[in-house]
User: What shape does this take?
Amino acid sequence: MSRFSLRDVLASTGAELIRGDQDVVVTGVSTDTRTIRTGELFLALRGPNYDGNRFAAAALEGGAGALILAAEGELPELPGHVPVAVHSDPRRALADLASWYRSRLGAPVVGVTGSCGKTTTKNIVQELLSTVKRVVASPSSYNNDIGVPLTLLLAETGTEVFAIEMGTNNPGEIAALCRIAQPTAGVITNVGAAHLEGLGSLMGVAREKGDLAAALPRDGFLVLNADCHFTTELRSRTAARVITFSVEGAEGERGDLDARDLYFHSGGTTFRLGEHEITSPLLGTHNVQNLLAALCVCVGLEVPLEAVLPAVARLTGGRQRMERIELGGLTLLDDTYNSNPDALRAAVRVLCGMHGHGRRVLVFGDMLELGDLAAEMHHGLGLEAAQAGIDLIVPVGELAQAAAAGAREGGLTKEAVHHFLDTNEAAQTIDGLLADGDIVLVKGSRAMRLERIVEAIKRKRGGAGA
Assistant: This one.
């Protein structure tokens, strides 16, 4: 765990000590009294609907070694002699402390962003590099201005690499995360139609993701997807070395790492990479791209591929990320963690590439934050799914009405398209639409809670969690 004195905290953040000894040593940082551990520094964050100062007493009960409270407003009376400091903005204090601590360790930081695939890519980077180095990576999806600092503060002395996921909803957020994490390397998995409500357009997404490229030092490296339409734009924004990857790249357009001869099967995805034949447990072309991006990171860090390729067999996609579940005569692909148009297209390609089953069934929910293009995009995705060869489409949500219309326009009969406005209604009805032998993909934005549909199928079919 991280260790530093309260004196260092005060110096790096500008917080003002109002009680106690500044030479106290704290062991880690917490913003959540439910998980705080003995000796940690508690930072009382504030937001529109919460005030961390109200939890100061609970932090002490949990064993906090020191507290930084918001200076604004009335300060709580606290028992004991645990040091207490105040700061005008504890969230800013968290960022400043993490930035100071990251500089103190000096290990390379690999920032990972992209419209989809960033969490999986970050996880693969961690799994591969952990075979040869001491790696600290973002837990789950700690990818905002709270999660990134907390990830940096997890590191112990001796950490050799950071793998830091960076997310964004609005312009300027990636640049702010780069100021905190000071990345020496970066991965931009792709640029697609995600968070258009905040970023405005695909070009706006590219500009925002490109802020990671612009933040890298000349002696660093940037990993880019050679198949992405914005690769030339992103390349132009960095002084760092660029390493690219591709899948079945055309002559003259292949990445530095190029995967060939892909095929999907019950054990995952197999492909050829130069002289290596690689089998990944992860399904789909998009997950081959994620793996290639992580292998490019190894190249950039001068780690031989031969040293990390054995770890590919240990990869897992994570819960609700194309998680394959066999139950009650059908195959269920649970991809309910999140969704956007490019991620849905990738998932449909996986579904259409799966053979040896009965019908291919696609259950998908509204994709959010698409702004004025939302209805048009949903219609187009319904049309594409029908034309790709999906046998039964079950769109869920208000926007999904446009997807249902698109699917019928794409050639599916009325009986092959079942639209539900409500997730709960879909969950109650879905199993009656399915038959033994079907392969069923369930995918949707987090807010749609399509995992309820997965759980309903499990209950009916006697699967885990029933």
Observations:
- Residues 10 and 16 are 7 Å apart (CA to CA).
